[in-house]
Design a protein that fits this description.
ubiquitin binding, Thioredoxin-like_sf, rod-shaped, six-stranded mixed β-sheet, about 375 residues, alpha/beta, UAS
Length: about 375
């Protein structure tokens, strides 16, 4: 994994003006990475005690990700035990209460031994002229790393805190502003997605309510139609009336305006559609079934099951197969929200059209 480092020194001990290629380890030296991290803490605490900044015992990129998530800069310390300035810096500066409190409150801290593992790689990349060596880094756009400040050699606690404070104030506007913009964009995207989900859920609830209301109205009409007038007992229904409405008009010989050939053709079309629908419904996942209630201008209704992957054209084929009288050119309309499903929508699936799992459509003659 390669990262470009943009070195931007601010009052640092030494400035680099050329970009460097920073190569971090991927899946190599697995036996060294974790032991190196704990080796630094173990060695440091044995010699200087447990009062020190909170150093994350993890890989460099993991600590950098933590800093990015917490919207903080990262404080990097390369420890060189054999350097003559190291003991005084660790005891008097790095472990001082002022430095510990300031680093823990404002930075994500990471340290490593300068002569092994990732610490050696960082030393080879940043090329410190002297030790002790500290740096302030931050993730930058384009999968790169920005070094905002480098501090080398002996330094007092007050001077270190002053440099760190100035770095946070001056660089925080640029890097913090970019992070704030990205965070705001992510927040807006999440809010937009949540609003879309709420709107879809509300639309589905309203469609279900409209469907159930239409179904209830049709049931009431059907119930009133079969109620005996004036409390008289209803006469037995003839065998021919037991057929569905669309079958009665096809088999009723009094309807002479429909020739025998047309009636036969309608019967054949409907029978074929029944066979096709029965075959399709067998083995269908119930969750993939779409219930469509179709209401006709004469008050009749038909309810039919489709697959959610069927297209709008399937509903038209079903209506055509009924061969209802007076139904020529027409279009299908959803009542709420009002939407016309015409020629341009023939190729849309029922699910994409918002008709799944159930919907109520009105057939409007043209």
């Amino acid at each position: 994994m390669s990262y470009g480092i943009d070195l931007m020194g601010i009052g640092g001990r030494r400035h680099h003006h050329q970009p460097l290629n920073f190569h971090l380890p991927q899946h190599q030296q697995e036996s060294l990475v974790v032991p190196d991290e704990w080796a630094f803490l173990s060695s440091f605490e044995q010699q200087y005690g447990s009062i020190h900044p909170f150093f994350y015992a993890c890989q460099f990129m993991e600590a950098l990700k933590i800093a990015e998530d917490e919207h903080k800069f990262m404080f990097v310390y390369l420890h060189s035990p054999e350097h003559p300035f190291t003991p005084s810096f660790c005891r008097e500066t790095l472990c001082s209460e002022l430095v510990v409190q300031f680093l823990n409150a404002n930075f994500v801290c990471w340290a490593a031994l300068a002569d092994r593992g990732e610490g050696l790689q960082m030393a080879a990349t940043l090329r410190p002229a002297s030790f002790p060596f500290c740096a302030v880094v931050a993730p930058a756009p384009g999968n790169s790393l920005a070094v905002l400040q480098q501090m080398e050699g002996p330094i007092s606690p007050a001077e270190l805190v002053e440099i760190l404070q100035r770095t946070v104030e001056e660089q925080g506007l640029a890097f913090g502003g970019a992070r704030a913009i990205n965070e705001e964009e992510r927040r807006r995207a999440r809010a937009k997605e949540e609003e879309k989900m709420r709107a879809d859920r509300q639309l589905r609830e309203e469609q279900d309510a409209a469907y159930l209301a239409a179904l209830q109205i049709d049931k009431e009409k059907e119930k009133r139609k079969h109620q005996p007038p004036g409390g008289r007992v209803q006469k037995p229904v003839e065998a021919s009336n037991k057929l569905p409405d669309h079958d009665r008009f096809r088999y009723n010989p009094t309807q002479n305006r429909y020739g025998n050939g047309k009636i036969t053709a309608s019967k054949t079309r409907y029978t074929d559609h029944q066979k096709e629908t029965t075959t399709t419904n067998q083995g269908r996942d119930p969750q993939a079934t779409t219930q469509i209630l179709i209401r006709f201008p004469n008050g009749e209704r038909r309810e039919q099951s489709f697959s959610c992957t069927d297209k709008i054209q399937s509903i038209y084929k079903y209506v055509d197969s009924l061969g209802l009288p007076g139904v020529g050119n027409y279009k299908l309309i959803s009542s709420f929200p009002r939407r016309v499903y015409g020629v341009d929508q023939m190729g849309i699936t029922l699910k994409d059209a918002g008709l799944h799992p159930r919907a109520s459509l009105f057939l409007e003659l043209l």
